[in-house]
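Lecture 7 notes: from sequence to structure.

We start with a single chain of 358 residues. Read the sequence below before looking at the structure.
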Amino acid sequence: MDQTLLAGRSPQGPFALMHRVYKHILPGVREQLNGWRRMAEAIPDAELRKQALSSIALKEFHCQGGAVYAAANLEQKDVLIPLIVALQTISDYLDNLCDRSTSLDADDFRLLHRSMLDAVTPGEPPGNYYKLRNEQDDGGYLRELVKRCQACVSRLPSYPLVQDEVRELVSLYGDLQVYKHIAKPLREERLLDWWSKHAERYPDLLWNEFAAAAGSTLGMFMLFLAASDENLTPEQSAGIRNSYFPAINGLHILLDYLIDQAEDEQGGDLNFCSYYESQQQMNERLLRMVQAARSAADRLPFSRFHRMIVEGLIALYLSDPKVRGQREVRQTARLLMKGSPWTRVFFWLNSHFIRKAM
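Now the structure, written as C-alpha cells:
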C-alpha cells in the first residue's frame, strides 16, 4: 500500500510514541473527559446520570487507548482527540445503558445506537434516542456528544472518503451491542442468525471471532486518523478498513475477553472465548489472530505505527493482573507473546511512563 499517507508525521518507534502519548495525548483526553463529566453531573434523570458518570469513571482507559491514534498526526490532535473521546464516550455510555440499566428491549438498544451512526454522519439531525425507554431527560448530554463528533468529522479534510467505511463499522458495532445485551436465552440464537448474513464474506472466521471484531472501535479511530490527511485516496481507505476488520479489531476484543473469562463466568456474562471447543483450539485460533493482525499491520501505510498498536495491545492485555490468577490464561499468554521482543519493550515503557506520570 502507498506509504505517503501521513508521511513524516507518525512516531517511528515505541519511545517516540510513548513520549507523544504522555506529553500530548493523555492531557488532551483528560481535558475532554472533564468537560463531559461536568455535563454528566448535571443530567436531570438519576438513572441516566448514574450510568453516564459510571461509564466515564470506570472506562476512561478506553478513551486513553483510542486517542493514541492522534499521536500519529499531532497537527490534527485538536480535532482527533475530541472526536475519539466523544465517540468512545457515547459507546461506553450506551454499553452501560444496555448492560447495567433498566431495559432488555432490542428496539430500545437499536435506537440508542442510532446516536453513533448519527455522530459519524455530518448534517444528520440528532433524534430522541431515549424514546423507547422509561428514562428520558439527560439534559442534552447524548445529543451534545453526537454534535461534537459531527463537528469534528466535518473538519477532517478527507472524511468524505472514509464516511461509508466508518458507518459500516459503526453499524456492525451497533448490531453486536443489540444482540449481546438482549435477554440471555435469545442472545446466542440472534448472534448466530446475524453471523449467517456475513459468514460468506469471512470464510476464515468463526462466528465468535466475527462478533468480537465488530465490538472494537479501533478501525473507526484509524479511519478518522487517515481522514486527517488531505492526501488520502479511496483505495487506501478501503485497505485500512479491510486491514483493521477483522484482524486487528478481532485481536483487540478477543484479548479483552481472554483475560475476563473468570470474571465473566462468575457473573454469568457472555464471553466470546468460551465458545471455543477446547483450550487447544482457543490457543490455536488466538495465535492465528495475532499473526493475522501483525500481517495486516505490516501491509498498512506507516506500518511501524500499526505494528506498535498490535504489539501494544498484546502487552497491555497480557500483562494485566487478571492473567496471573488464571492458569490456562497464563499458558495462552506465554504462547501469544513468543517471538515478539516489541511486547517486552511495551511492558517496560508502560510501567516506566506510568510511574513517571504518577
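Residues 353-358 have pLDDT under 50 and may be disordered. Keep this in mind for problem set 3.
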